[in-house]
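This protein record is not my work; I was only asked to verify it. The record follows directly below this note.
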Amino acid sequence: MKSNRLILALCTLVCAFFAPGCVPRYTFNGSAINYEIYKTVDIGNFPIRASLVYPPLQQTFENELLNYVTRNTRLQEIDSNNADLKLEGEITGYSLSPQAVGTDAYATETRLTITVHVKYTDTKNPANNIDQNFSAYRQFDSSLMLTDVQDDLCQQISEEIVNLIFNATFGNW
């Protein structure tokens, strides 16, 4: 019994000595970036190309994306074609649709949906490249004016889309 423990302890010690590179790394922000390889990121503009345009949305989305990447990675944001990682795209959808109909045949809830097309380029490993649409929505009571809730809804939706983009790109999920 004593010899089994001694053998187990020796095996553990030998494994720890010969496999120092096999240390598991955990991050609490969901990023899976190897900072020995990736140092820089270029986050481009996301112009609005939707048929319905709300001009403040572009700045709201771009600020949210830049802030989220800056807070959750150690990548240096640069404006250059030489960046290790690149995020660019456009806001392709901004739409309103009725969701619930009341007894008077009028909508009681309206859904605001935003869609963003993202092109993510990994210059070190092209297999990680992504060219994809991300969308999210929020519903609001149809008795409210869109102008009264639009800023808050756009902020909430932008946060959700940025989270989806981050998980699909930097999180490599």
Observations:
- Confidence is low (pLDDT under 50) at residues 13-30.
- The chain has three helices and five strands.
- The first helix runs from residue 2 to 18.
